[in-house]
What does this fold into?
Amino acid sequence: MDSKRYATKSSTRGGARPGAGRPRGSGHKIRLEDLMDQIELQAGMPYAERLAANYAGAIDRADWGKVSEYDRAFLNKIVADKNEVEVTDSTDSVEAKKLAFAEALRDLTVVRP
It folds into this structure.
């Protein structure tokens, strides 16, 4: 008899395998600090300066879609970092600013193609 004829066939559809994957306790493959260091090394300038240069370049090229993306990203960072806002205006102007800010945030959350 042919012994291969009755051999157990392993699955070819994937699934867990003993010893597969990264070892337990191993760190991330790429650390953020290492990535930022490499970007700065390759670009020859700090990452924040590179972002500013890219933003200025998008404005110079009149690439308004890219400028808008940068504006949203920067605004998200600024709003996320801002913990306190001091308002010294009258009640009416404060309400008007709250409404304008709420509308601006709503517009930022709308996904456009």
Remarks:
- The chain has one domain: 28-109.
